[in-house]
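Example 3.2
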Amino acid sequence: MGDVHGQFYDFIKVIDDDTGGPLESTKYIFLGDYVDRGCFSIEVLGLILAIKIKFKNTVFMLRGNH
């Protein structure tokens, strides 16, 4: 998943829909660009970090350009 750009509610919807499978058993790769443009950059970053801490073996984070 990439280019979230601080769009917290859109990000929540994708995670809640379980579109790609449950976080505990499906590998998720976050492709960067978590912040910028949207109004909820810190919330997006905080949630992604919390998800990474809880599901450290199935969640991976890459650095984007911002």
